[in-house]
Amino acid sequence: MRVLVLGGTQFVGRAIAAQAVARGHAVTCAARGLSGERPPGTRFVAVDRDRPDGLAALGRETFDAAVDVARAPHQVRRALAALEGRVGHWTFVSSTSVYADTETPGQRAETAPLLAPAEDGPYGAAKVACERVFGTALICRAGLIVGPGDPTGRFGYWIARLARGGEVLAPAAPEDPVQLIDGRDLAAWIVGAAERGLAGRFDAVAPACTRRTFLERCADALGSACTYAWVDQAFLDRHGVGRESGPFSLPLPLPDTIGDASRDVSATIAAGLTVRPLEETARDTLHWLKAGSGPITGLTEAEEAALLAAWRAERG
Ligand SMILES: NC(=O)c1ccc[n+]([C@@H]2O[C@H](COP(=O)([O-])OP(=O)(O)OC[C@H]3O[C@@H](n4cnc5c(N)ncnc54)[C@H](OP(=O)(O)O)[C@@H]3O)[C@@H](O)[C@H]2O)c1
Questions:
Q1: DSSP 8-state secondary structure symbol assigned to residue 35
Q2: Cβ of residue 51 lying under 6 Å from some atom of ligand 1
Q3: Would you state the pLDDT for residue 316?
Q4: pLDDT by residue (tens digit) across 156-177?
Q5: What is the CA(283)–ligand 1 centre distance, in A?
């Protein structure tokens, strides 16, 4: 197939482009060329989607399949207009952040309520607006995307922390769910789905596991000896520990986002999503971090030790 990736130079778009090349497709990555490198074996076309004529460099080319990772509805509208009638199959990489209910476990993509769309709104609402513009495409709502190449440092935090061993500060309850997807599995599913002409709305994330299982499986895969101090969310909130990402945070989906960490993905599995073992993602991510390429966000070693000491002091 002739495949167009709008983006293709950052984590997810790059993985999709690389996967399409590996499966023998002719791949064009179209971006400004500011954020990163296109994968080997792809062609690069410079475009700027913030300019009215910004996609002109794609000329009158046709593509069997195109994938868009945009977050801004105006960019999506512009791309669909510029490429009208020239793309056989569209995939839009959306997010589980489009959902309005973050508390109810086990929700399904076909029935879960969405946020109100907002043109210039926050991330989730803007993604809903993007989805509306796409209409009948493959709408792939990704959950937390992890693995080598992840620029957010969230999964990287846990891998680096577990690799260090010892007593690990673990947030909230061990039975709370964790749900994520290796970026390479996401990319493989997207390319395969485009090959088959799949359309519709799907959550693209692996089945959930508990926090305890998540931490123990990753630690075992890294050959690391860890114990876990399960610390109340209220304590973490009182001490200003951030949720999800950034400095002084514990980047796991926390109790108020349980709905976002326990989605029913049976329809996606039935539609061909295969997920590699968590152990493989953990080991590959550690190799990537050790090679010096990956960021880590979360608590420093000293911050974690101080919080654990305060937790013990508070409990007497
Ligand atoms: N990370 C997660 O856990 C997570 C979870 C759920 C969903 N998602 C979704 O996954 C996707 C992530 O995509 P990604 O990793 O490829 O990263 P990204 O940061 O969304 O990449 C943006 C891409 O678009 C290009 N771009 C940005 N502005 C542009 C412009 N004005 N004109 C043309 N190209 C432009 C960038 O290259 P240049 O800067 O060079 O132009 C880059 O290749 C997003 O759709 C996100 O919403 C992520």
A1: S
A2: no
A3: 81
A4: 999 999 999 999 999 989 999 9
A5: 25
- The residue whose CA is least distant from atom 16 of ligand 1 is 13
At 174-219, the pLDDT tens digits run 999 999 999 999 999 999 999 999 999 999 999 999 999 999 999 9
Nearest atom, ligand 1, residue 150 CA: 1
Gap between the Cα atoms of 313 and 123, Å rounded: 39
Q: Under a CB-based contact definition with an 8 Å cutoff, are residues 56 and 50 in contact? A: no
Strand, coil or helix: what is 156? helix
183 lines ligand 1 (CB under 6 A): no
Ligand 1 midpoint to CA 9 (Å): 8
CA 114 to chain centroid, in Å, comes to 18
Q: What's the alpha-carbon Rg for the chain, to the nearest Å?
A: 20
Residue to mutate (ligand 1; options 11, 14, 67, 69; most atoms within 8 A of CB): 69
CA of 39 to the centre of ligand 1 (A): 15
Six-digit token string for 289: 């971090």
On the 0-12 / 13-18 / 19+ scale of CB atoms within 10 A, 52 is exposed
Q: Is the CB of 37 under 6 A from ligand 1?
A: no
Any idea what DSSP says for residue 49? T
DSSP letters along 175-240, please?
TSEE-EEEHHHHHHHHHHHHHHT--EEEEESPPPEEHHHHHHHHHHHTT--EEEEEE-HHHHHHTT
Residue 281 beta carbon below 6 angstroms from any ligand 1 atom:
no
pLDDT at res. 245? 86
Q: Is 48 in the pocket of ligand 1 (CB under 6 A)?
A: yes
Determine if residue 41 is left, alpha or beta; phi over 0 gives left, psi from -120 to 50 gives alpha, anything else beta. Answer: left
Cα–Cα dist 28/39, whole Å: 10
Over residues 223-246, the mean pLDDT reads 94
- How far does residue 217's CA lie from ligand 1's centre (Å)? 30
pLDDT value of position 255 = 64
